[in-house]
Amino acid sequence: MAERRDVMNNKMLDGRAIVVTGAGAGLGHAYARALAEAGARVVASDVNADGVRGVVEEIVAGGGTAIACVGSVADWDSAEELMRTCVKEFGSLDGLVNNAAVQHAASPLDENEARVRRIVEINVLGSLFPAMHAFRIMAAQRRGKILNVTSGAHIGLPGMVAYGTTKGAVASLTYNLALEAAQHGIQVNALAPVAQTAMSPVEDRKDGVTRPRPEQIAPAVVYLMSDASGSLNGQVVRYDGRSLSLLDPPHFRTTRVTEDIATTEGIAQAFDSVLFGTVAPVGLY
């Protein structure tokens, strides 16, 4: 075990070219720095020019390699240019950390069209577009890793209808793209982090766990971008710096009713006699 730790700590991403979206602050900032410290050449992307240039300056000052790309990953052409920039500058695209997102909490009674459209465009299209463009390049290379950043909110949290919906889409992107990826030598997984950031400033969760700092989450990203993660594909990893687990992929339950269900009455009887007994509660906590 000691020997494995030594290997894991010795520039395990040496020479890899990795794009990190939403790298201008918070978790993305921490991911970019940790990847560079592990030897990766990083393309840091964000709409926040000052933030993304700041993280690049930190990486370079620490002896790492990084460049900044300013633009919106929710724009199809900008997302494509981001991936092409990585190939142009570093010769390949070995990884994408699909992190860019925004968050707001609100009751459905208080939502408005502008806020819902914004969160859907940034969180869903801003994950789907980079993943699509990265996938095309990686398929031609016959290698690569895509790590989408989702959230436990997609399981269900009060006040998180819009945000949770977008993160559910990111989880679904992971499952679907992973099925396409395996035949091309690509791995696609997702991380559901728990951390204290500007998006999630509350220090303590309802379950009593103190939210860790972003840099405490970054080791999971380094691992998932490395060869050490092996053949892991299509999985959602939950990590809060203290506990590490996998989310069960969605599936239809094995308990099924197949007889006398052709009418409304038959369906009602099936629920009353069988299916209501298999109902599970929803929600993260």
Can you describe this structure?
Keywords: Oxidoreductase. InterPro entries: NAD(P)-bd_dom_sf, Peroxisomal_Beta-Oxidation, SDR_fam. GO terms for molecular function: oxidoreductase activity. It comes from Acrocarpospora pleiomorpha. With 285 residues, the protein is α/β, with parallel strands linked by helices. The protein has two domains: 2-246, NAD(P)-binding Rossmann-like Domain (Rossmann fold, 3-Layer(aba) Sandwich); 252-285, no CATH class. Helix content is 41%, strand content 15%. The chain contains eight helices and eight strands; from the N terminus they run αβαβαβαβαβαβαββα. Strands 3-2-1-4-5-6-7-8 form an eight-stranded mixed β-sheet, sandwiched between helices. α6 (161-181) links the parallel β5 and β6 (186-193). It is globular.
Key traits:
NAD(P)-bd_dom_sf, globular, alpha/beta, Rossmann fold, SDR_fam, 2 domains, 285 residues, Short-chain dehydrogenase, oxidoreductase activity, 8-stranded mixed sheet
